[in-house]
Specification:
- The complex is a heterodimer of chains A (about 220) and B (about 280).
- The longest helix of chain A is centred in the middle third of the chain and has 14 residues.
- In chain A, strand 2, helix 1 and strand 3 form a beta-alpha-beta unit.
- Chain A has about 220 residues and is α/β, with parallel strands linked by helices.
- Chain A has a 5-stranded parallel beta sheet with strand order 5-6-7-8-9.
- Chain A has one domain: TIM Barrel (Alpha-Beta Barrel), CATH 3.20.20.
- The N and C termini of chain A lie far apart (about 55 Å).
- Chain A contains 6 helices and 11 strands.
- Helices cover about 30% and strands about 20% of the residues of chain A.
- In chain B, about 35% of the residues lie in helices and about 15% in strands.
- Chain B has a 7-stranded parallel beta sheet, with helices on one face.
- The longest helix of chain B has 14 residues.
- Chain B has a single domain, classed as TIM Barrel, CATH 3.20.20.
- By secondary structure, chain B is α/β, with parallel strands linked by helices.
- The chains are: A alpha/beta (about 220), B alpha/beta (about 280).
- Chains A and B meet through helix 3, helix 5 and helix 6 of A and helix 5, helix 8 and helix 9 of B.
Chain lengths: ~220, ~280
């Protein structure tokens, strides 16, 4: 039994709150059959299945970018979703940041990003191996937008537990093709765990050639 | 979960200048870009072959990073063999590197149309300055696929015999596999078995690019391409394998994955000289 691939459509709402974010979130969920993860600056007025906030607030998951955000007081951190640049060695600063968050909060998920010139494929492969072994109880994902599809496809093949994130609606076909090559089904899901299987890509049969008249070469006005 | 080792840098990338002599071709292979649909309207300009003067002026301004010149042509009845020979001559006058000129398919066309012996044609190409024969015609050697995608091609066996004549003349022949999604594992195996029966200067793995209006002809996924390259490496273990990149080029990661799978180099088109 092979593990399925998950497509988690994500809506990022910018930090400056606008009143149309509520209907926007509703439209986003309606467009994805009631599934989808939403990252918002404050709680929404509508019921959503999967939500994380970019500002820490008790009772909500805190979505923190460890490379960019100023960390708040330790006691205000609760459960966190961490986005961090992939640490590749013991002296990496992103490892120190991840470690600080791990000590003072309950890390629910880690999403790794790639800094292409600093992260060759060799380093990523080894780093992911180490991270997946070090945090077996945390769901680890990679950001496909920064990793690139070629690297992401290879890493998904090498590490079946890896989550692929940051896949836009118009990139879904790439995930479907990856699923086809790896022989894994693709499910639409968010972090509330009520997945729905996606139908496979359409298959086109290669049609039969036109009948050949063996006494003529195929001439037409286009072929002189 | 096991970590793998990868090369830090991909195999060498050769810049290619691709010269198209004429885009007219009667063969109608469904995967070929000479087969693109062009509507015929009353004022449609039908471009003729590439003039020698154009080719010379374009070659004079070519970037210096080019390591290989490929010359190809459609199968047209209008241009004589001497036109193609002069073009190779003009190219060879201004370039010191290898020139991969035409393929057994074009040689067969000249042989049939001009009624001249194949060995003579090959010797004249060699005299004009060509250094090797291209892999054209070996895209698909599996008979069931040839029937469907390129029914007007010469038989696989005839193609191979013609290509092997290149060794006698000093034009080492090369072969190819077209990496399309339609190939099953058994197809790839039988294609490689046919190739392994003869010797080749190098093998090109041509990354297929989707053709307009033909949704059933799809390019291969990068992971399937890696499997194809490693299988080619296992079957033909002492022949160099070059991956022929599609027009957009491959990503750095893809090149590293293919190098790990066994590719010896990459061909990237830097300059396309069209009629």
């Amino acid at each position: 039994m092979t593990k399925p691939l998950y497509w988690i459509p994500t809506l990022f709402l910018p930090n400056h709150w606008q009143p149309f974010y509520d209907p926007l979130a509703k439209m986003f969920l309606a467009a994805h059959q009631g599934r989808g993860h939403i990252v918002s600056p404050q709680p929404l007025g509508v019921q959503v299945p999967s939500l994380a906030l970019t500002q820490p607030q008790s009772g909500y998951v805190y979505h923190v970018n460890a490379d960019r955000d100023q960390l708040p007081n330790r006691d205000r951190l609760g459960v966190t979703d961490v986005v961090v640049s992939c640490p590749t060695g013991i002296e990496d600063t992103s490892l120190a940041r991840l470690n600080a968050l791990y000590r003072y909060s309950t890390v629910r998920r880690i999403t790794l990003t790639r800094d292409a010139p600093r992260h060759p494929l060799l380093a990523l492969s080894r780093a992911l191996d180490t991270i997946l072994q070090s945090f077996p109880h945390i769901s680890v994902g990679i950001d496909v937008e920064t990793f690139g599809w070629d690297a992401a496809a290879h890493l998904a093949q090498q590490f079946p537990d890896l989550r692929l994130e940051g896949i836009d609606d118009n990139q879904l076909w790439q995930l479907m093709q990856l699923g086809q090559v790896l022989g894994r089904t693709v499910w639409l899901d968010d972090f509330s765990h009520h997945p729905k299987a996606l139908p496979p890509l359409p298959q086109f049969k290669i049609s039969d050639p036109p009948p050949i008249d063996v006494h003529r070469i195929p001439f037409s006005s286009r072929f002189r | 979960m096991t970590s793998q080792t990868f090369p830090l840098e991909p195999a060498p990338i050769t810049g290619v200048a691709k010269i198209t002599t004429t885009r007219h071709c009667w063969m109608q292979c469904r995967f070929c870009d000479f087969n693109h649909f062009t509507p015929v309207l009353f004022d449609t300009k039908i471009t003729s072959c590439l003039p020698l003067a154009d080719a010379e002026s374009r070659l004079a301004t070519m970037p210096t990073s080019i390591g290989l010149i490929k010359i190809r042509g459609g199968l047209s009845f209008r241009e004589p063999f001497t036109y193609f020979r002069s073009l190779v001559r003009a190219v060879a006058d201004g370039f010191n590197g290898p020139i991969q000129a035409f393929s057994p398919i074009e040689v067969n066309q000249w042989h049939r149309v001009e009624q001249r012996p194949v060995r003579e044609l090959l010797a004249e190409l060699k005299w004009a300055g060509a250094t090797r024969l291209g892999p054209g015609g070996s895209e698909i050697l599996v008979q069931s696929w040839r029937d469907r995608l390129s029914p007007y091609r010469i038989e696989s066996a005839a193609w191979e015999n013609l290509a092997q004549l290149g060794w006698e003349t000093g034009l080492p022949p090369s072969a190819m596999i077209l990496a399309g999604k339609w190939l099953s594992a058994a197809d790839i195996k039988s294609h490689l078995r046919i190739l392994a029966a003869n010797s080749w200067h190098h093998i090109e793995v041509k990354v297929f690019r989707a053709v307009a209006l033909q949704p059933e002809l799809e390019p291969m996924h990068i992971l399937a391409l890696c499997r194809l390259v490693s299988e080619t490496r296992e079957t033909l273990n002492d022949t160099p394998i070059y991956v022929n990149e599609p027009p957009g080029g491959l990503s750095h990661d893809a090149r590293i994955l293919l190098t790990q799978a066994g590719a010896d180099g990459f061909y990237t088109t830097l300059e396309a000289i069209e009629p």
